[in-house]
Amino acid sequence: MASALLENPVVPDRRWDVIVVGAGAAGLAAAEQLSRAGLSVAVLEARPALGGRIRTRRMRGCAVPIELGAEFVHGRSEEVFEIASAAGLLIDRLSDSLLAATRSGLKSQLAFWDRFERITRQMRRTGRDRSVADFLRARRSLSPAQRRLAAWMVEGYHAAPLDRVSEHALSTAGDPPSSPEERAQFRVVAGYDGLTNWLRSRLEPKRCGVFLSTPAREIRWRRRHVTVRCEDSQEFRASRVLVTVPVGVLQAAAESAAQSGSILRLPLFGERCPGSRWGMSSRSCCGFARCSGQTRDS
Ligand SMILES: Cc1cc2nc3c(=O)[nH]c(=O)nc-3n(C[C@H](O)[C@H](O)[C@H](O)COP(=O)(O)OP(=O)(O)OC[C@H]3O[C@@H](n4cnc5c(N)ncnc54)[C@H](O)[C@@H]3O)c2cc1C
């Protein structure tokens, strides 16, 4: 696999201050801060492109960008708004109305977040964790409509199987009700990749190397020294490593029998990993020529 080096920084003895594994939003944001703070940084990315789960496509004839990954900014997130403002990106607030497709047409969902929070407030966040499926089985007092809503949110919004998602993670027990600003949804008008492209443009070229198509395979730690061995046998050395691969990949790595104390072996996409917490997601985008404007309240 040929790796593409996007920058060609001058690094003495090819010993970097920091290796960042993964060039999604987290990896790029870290590399931006570290390289601008004066450290030399090697960013290793398994895919031939940057951005990770932010993936914007543009199609001729389609006025809006199509997001294959992240699409909405959930709540008024300071970090995202700061980058958008520095990058000159317009962020649009979406309407609060939510429609559900039912057999009898589109129904607007009233007090949707209140109804969902009434369920998540009943979830435990202490004690032994269990799946949301187990929570739903145990909570007999929930109505069929509440069960449907919980399943719809977990499977449709969080894209997680009910029997795998953690009750603790979704619990809002003891929290005050979320504010309208926390519930608000926004969209980066010109495409979410505007954020990652901006981060990429801010990497300090003299100190930061970005290596595409360079999957890290094995990370070995020693005192003040780390070596990352890649799929193509290239080795990178540094004082520190920052691993920003998805949590599911890390879990699969941690559960793999091949691990030993100071070595982490990272699995690659498509590899069979016992206990793997990752899966495929498919996304359908529909274009509507017009909006009928007919909805029913539910
Ligand atoms: C379909 C979909 C829709 C989403 N919608 C939203 C949304 O609307 N709003 C929202 O806020 N979030 C959304 N998300 C989640 C959001 O995209 C992610 O939380 C965010 O992009 C994660 O960024 P990250 O940098 O942490 O990880 P990632 O973007 O996953 O970056 C990790 C990078 O590590 C690389 N990598 C993996 N293994 C290796 C290896 N061995 N060596 C080198 N590199 C490696 C990967 O290729 C990837 O580029 C969505 C996600 C998906 C999949």
Q: How would you sum up this structure, described in words?
A:
- The mean pLDDT is 88.
- The protein is globular and about 65 Å long.
- Strands 1-11-3-2-14-13-12-15 form an eight-stranded mixed beta sheet, with helices on one face. It has a three-stranded antiparallel beta sheet with strand order 6-10-7, covered by helices on one side. Strands 8-9-16 form a three-stranded mixed beta sheet, with no helix packed on it.
- It is built from nine helices and 16 strands.
- The longest helix has 14 residues, at 144-157.
- Helix 2 (78-87) crosses helix 8 (193-201) and helix 3 packs across helix 5 (144-157).
- The protein has helices at residues 25-36, 78-87, 112-120, 132-138, 144-157, 167-170, 180-183, 193-201, 247-255, and strands at residues 4-5, 15-21, 41-44, 56-57, 66-67, 72-74, 91-93, 99-102, 105-108, 185-188, 208-212, 216-222, 225-230, 235-243, 263-265, 296-297.
- The chain has 298 residues and is of the alpha/beta class.
- The termini are far apart.
- The structure holds flavin-adenine dinucleotide.
- Residues 21-27, 44-47, 52-54, 69-72, 74, 215-216, 244-246, 249, 266, 281, 283 line the site of flavin-adenine dinucleotide (FAD).
